[in-house]
Amino acid sequence: MVVRTFPDLVGRPYAGGTSINNSHGASWVRGRLLGQGGFGSVFLGKSRKPNEDHNQLPALMAVKSADMDQAHTLKHEKQVLSTLKNSPFVVKCYGDEVTESGDGKVIYNILLEYCSGCSLSDHIKESKTGLPESEIKCYTRDILRGLQFVHGHWLVHCDIKPSNILLASNSSSRSGLVAKISDFGLCKYENEEAVETRGTRRYMAPEVIEDNILERPADIWAVGCVVLEMMSGKVVWGVSTVDDDLLMRIAYSPELPEFPSNVSETGRDFLEKCLVKCADYRWSAEALLGHPFLLQPSS
């Protein structure tokens, strides 16, 4: 057994002070800070001329920014999103732009779809005890359709988790919201060697921990973790900090995260199809979309 250590790959948030607030684009104005991720800070962006016919930008967008010398992950995300157009279950990218902050720093920005419904992580936390089954099924279908699209382009997301699933208004959805996959900075091509372990420890599949194998099944394991959190309202594995001892148990023991006691038989079976220790036996996104748990109406 090879015992390895795994730092949380959270990167560095933008640390350039408030001068970035005056770093506006040619066709958009930077608004308030929406949040900070591992590889950039996200601001609300407002189009300068939202009502003009030739304007290609929506009235509101999310502007993800980083210092140019720390922007390699953002540039990779922009490149990936350029190949993932036309899916309603993946955040849209409207382009990129370089701006300059008030203190002369060069800032790289990507212009993204603004999802006003917050993240799935926030939605789960607000629920306290878990989401209604009807919502769980809707969001799970959306996530799997998004992953099916991503995997169909020979890409692996590598960091599926509730905070990377954004909720956007959608009048045709039963919940009034649609779940969209975001944050593609750690994404890789299938069969491309992963030089370093990437992802978030809590959602890592056994083969990622053991052998640094990051392929489609690793995304499916993470989906199982996300569905489990939607069901229970609690973080998967039930601890605030995922230490190396827990990682070794995930990788080398038959232990699975605890399922809620009230989960339905089809719900349990769905989780078991995602959380198979052996990656070869995990169901694909396409197969899971046909699982009875997602096809049966909510009780």
From TrEMBL:
GO terms for MF: ATP binding; protein serine/threonine kinase activity
Chain sites annotated for binding ATP: K64
Gene3D superfamilies: Phosphorylase Kinase, domain 1, Transferase(Phosphotransferase) domain 1
One of the GO BP terms on file: signal transduction
InterPro entries: Kinase-like_dom_sf, Plant_MAPKKK, Prot_kinase_dom, Protein_kinase_ATP_BS, Ser/Thr_kinase_AS
Protein kinase domain ranges (all copies): 28-294
Entry keyword set: ATP-binding, Kinase, Nucleotide-binding, Serine/threonine-protein kinase, Transferase
Pfam families assigned to the protein according to its UniProt record, in alphabetical order: Pkinase
PANTHER family referenced in this protein's UniProt entry, alphabetically: CCR4-NOT TRANSCRIPTIONAL COMPLEX SUBUNIT CAF120-RELATED, PROTEIN KINASE DOMAIN-CONTAINING PROTEIN
Family as reported in the entry's similarity comment: Belongs to the protein kinase superfamily.
Name listed for the protein in its UniProt record: Pkinase domain-containing protein
